[in-house]
Target: Translation initiation factor IF-2
Amino acid sequence: HETISVGDLGHRMGIKANEIIAKLMGLGVMATVNQALDVDTAILVASDFGYDVEQAMTEEIGVEQLDLQEAGGVAVSRSPVITVMGHVDHGKTSILDAIRKTDVADGEAGGITQHIGAYHVKSEAGDVTFVDTPGHAAFTEMRSRGAQVTDLVILVVAADDGVMEQTREAIHHAQAAGVPILVAVNKIDKDNADPERVKRELSDLDLAPEEWGGQTIFVEMSAKNNIGIDSLMENIQLMAEMMELKADPERKARGRVVEAKLDKGRGAVATVLIQEGTIRTGDHFVVGQFSGKVRALLNDKGMPIKSAGPSIPVEVQGITGVPSAGDEFVVVTDEKMAKNVAQARTLKARESELAAGSKVSLDTLFEKL
Ligand code: GDP
Ligand code: MG
Model:
């Protein structure tokens, strides 16, 4: 499982063996058609021919099956992926509802938002994608798995209540994850609203507003009276531009599972937030320990679509099992590749389960002694 021959590599790429031999000579390696190449050399040569190789995946299943992805085009800007956080009752849901109403794509046939854990809004100011992480714990859990999909946190603080326990928690989680925060001071319509107090309290937590010499954008708003929503949307775009969020829509899709379930009629379905590339129906993929072929794609409004690019959430059908939130979703060359990676992962998981199991029984044994 350690090597691939020059001939096999050429065959996989549709490139003549002597071209590869010439390339290797250029690298100072004298080779023949039957020469065995190690992972690193194979990856180097493949990338010289314009292929992206999944190093990690290649090591999982062995180099002779290496996944050759034709390299994509240029990275272009993508919409920001946002998570709304804050203390209970400060207006998270109300703000999201108000933003949804700005969706210019709303009113399209069947335009009812489905609950798939993420949704995309086309607004006058620009497009945004929202990811519902059910609670701050989920945000941290995603981060611990290296699966943080959020570019920006909107921290909602009610102007009549100020910074509370869960406000502090949200700040802590966002800062630990290195995700920038935009503050939405909500409920400014209330008689006892005190936005200045919110600014003071947040300044003490390293979130000073720009007008006080800090770096944090504050938007004063009222979700109830529809005040400040446009300003919020514009400031989201402003921050997104500063972050220069980019992705390459040309390559094969890769993303993260936001939510997954077993549906009675449709089998295993997963909401995948696409992070790179474009997913299409018919694509073969690996997701966690499972694989599959994209049988159908639904957008966040429950409408069937044929493809989806970066920062777009899609519901994927055609998975061999129910993956976990945070699992990486990767489109691969063919069915064989998809199955082999899934199989290798299942085996590995079973091995570590067994190892854990025997450890437990040993522990139990010692307890009894
Ligand atoms: P969440 O728990 O953070 O999702 O908060 P909700 O969006 O459910 O809002 C909690 C309560 O505050 C609800 O009764 C809302 O109607 C109310 N609310 C939300 N935004 C505003 C606002 O801007 N002004 C006022 N006066 N009430 C609001
Ligand atoms: Mg809510």
The CA atoms of residues 234 and 269 lie 34 Å apart. The chain has a mean pLDDT of 88. The longest strand covers residues 254-263.
